[in-house]
Write a structure and sequence with these properties.
The chain is an alpha/beta fold and 280 residues long. It has 10 helices and 8 strands. An 8-stranded parallel β-sheet has the order 1-2-3-4-5-6-7-8, with helices on both faces. Helix 6 packs parallel to helix 7.
Length: 280
């Protein structure tokens, strides 16, 4: 079997009794603990992982932070309000938090915050001072401007899930074009993660839906490798596949990565990019 990625740059952990955000779109009927995650990584030969703050639980980062302190193989991004103070942010960094995740989408946060307002400007400066990054999710009408605002503040930027690209548009997708411009501007990375989400938003989903999603993933990775290069790409599984449980396995995501990036040296360059960003 071909070698596994060194770093999984996008995973989630949670317990079933964690408090939900009022905007949560689902409640998983199971727990996926840090120990479950580590067992999954070990079973597939993956050494490190980065826990993405999950929108379902709002600003409840307590469980993740406790587990970061226990497990040096893990890093995390925290969902924080813009009014968070510098001491709390510094304590999070000491625990293993490497970035803050901003949700600028009505589906996950209700009213869409203005990332250029006074509170967010102060947050971005504090993130910059601590050498953290912003892990951004934003809806279409604010996406490009939000990327420019974050980068204009001198903050490192990680863009989720292919930039939320429409695979049917390819390089002509405005979101993907904005994401690639951000990479060209410097200190920005795009995650090639959760390609299986190029399926219909709501079930039922068929095997053909997932096959088409894999084809879309292959084309987008080809484009991104050509336009931005492996040094600015990060691979992530999106384990435990919330909303797609039973249809996607961890082995599936590794197989999709190998299919999209068949060259071992290129895959290693993507892993090295994650090691430098998250673990150096």
């Amino acid at each position: 079997m071909a070698e596994a990625p060194i770093v999984d740059s996008h995973v989630h952990i949670f317990t079933q009794d964690m408090p939900l955000s009022p905007h949560a779109w689902t409640r998983p009927e199971y727990s996926f603990t840090a120990e479950d995650l580590l067992a999954t990584l070990d079973a597939h030969g993956v050494h490190f992982a980065v826990i993405a703050g999950i929108s379902l639980y709002g600003h409840y980062n307590d469980y993740m932070i406790a587990k970061l302190r226990e497990h040096p193989r893990l890093r995390g991004t925290a969902n924080v309000p813009p009014t968070i103070g510098p001491l709390e942010l510094a304590a999070m960094k000491d625990a293993g938090v490497v970035g803050v995740r901003l949700f600028l989408a009505s589906a996950t946060s209700g009213d869409v915050p203005d990332v250029g307002d006074a509170d967010h400007r102060l947050l971005l400066r504090r993130v910059r001072d601590l050498d953290l990054h912003v892990h951004l999710v934003a809806q279409d009408d604010v996406f490009a401007d939000a990327l420019e605002t974050v980068q204009g503040a001198g903050v490192k930027l990680v863009i989720d899930h292919f930039g939320g690209a429409d695979p049917a548009l390819g390089a002509d997708c405005p979101r993907l074009a904005a994401a690639m411009r951000a990479v060209e501007a410097g200190d920005a990375w795009i995650k090639i993660s959760a390609g299986f989400r190029f399926t219909p938003l709501a079930p039922p989903r068929t095997a053909d839906d997932y096959a088409r999603a894999r084809e879309a993933e292959l084309k987008l990775v080809d484009l991104l490798l050509e336009r931005v290069g492996p040094e600015r790409l990060l691979w992530g599984s999106d384990c435990p596949f919330v909303g797609h449980e039973g249809a996607v396995t961890y082995a599936d995501t590794i197989a999709s990565f190998h299919a999209a990036v068949p060259d071992a040296d290129t895959r290693r360059a993507i892993s090295d990019a994650a090691l430098r960003l998250y673990f150096s």
